[in-house]
Structures are given as C-alpha cells and as structure tokens.
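pasting Histidine kinase for the record, 150 residues
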Amino acid sequence: MKVAELMTPNPDTIVPEATLEEAARRILEKRYGSLPVVDREGCLLGLLQVEELLPHPENIPFSDVEALQLFGEWVNGEFLEDIYRRYQKTPVKAVMRTDIPRLHPEDPVGTALQTLLTSEVRHLPVVDQGNRVVGILTRSDFLKLILRRR
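structre below
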C-alpha cells in the first residue's frame, strides 16, 4: 500500500504571514492537530502543530525552578490575556517547525509509519515532486487502517 491510498488529500493549509490567532481558530474549528504552512504556490515551508501554540515548562537558567515559556519568552501565572495578545500579533512563521520529515504519495505506508513513530511530529505532510502539499498523513490514519483490516 502506498501513502496516496491512506493520506487525507488536499489538506487545509496556512500561509506563514497569518497570525497565530487565525491558525488557532482554524485548528479548533476543524479539530486539526496541525496545519501545513505553505507559500503562495502551495509549497511546503513548515508545520504548525497544536503543541507550538501552548506554553511549555522550561528550567530557568542557573536555577532548579521551572516556569512557563511561550514563543521563547517567559510568561507569568496570569498569562491567558498575554497569550491572546501574542496570538494576535505573532505570525505563524515565528513558531512553525521547519525541520519536519515529509512524505511522497508513492512512498510505502510502512516507511511512512516508521517515520511517524520515530519523529516528533504527529502529522506528516505529503508533497509532490515540486514540494507542493498534496496530502497529510496522521497517526489516526494508521489506526483507521488497522481497524479496517478486521
């Protein structure tokens, strides 16, 4: 079986200049876990995952204390309003991942599964020979495949 048979074709994408507010709203409305980031021609530039939109704990340098960091900056405990303001002004390109594996429609699904399990991304963009996004493959797609085989 090839990736083309399992992927979701023509996924929703976003441009790097869009705000994080726009991206977060689309992710929530459509129940996505990520959005491929593309240029005006549809070529893959990166991937914005839900994880990049949330604060994450970091050790404060030279300390045993852990605090929350968002987009490379520290945030305090009263951070919801601050996060929203940052979402309104921060472009997707500031936090998108660019070091992502990508698949091609003709790749075997076994190779795709191995890539998915060994990388830190949960959604793999599928690109054509010109690097244009033509699909997306997720961990859920493999669960559907397993259940379909019963």
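The mean pLDDT is 85.
DSSP finds six helices and eight strands in the chain.
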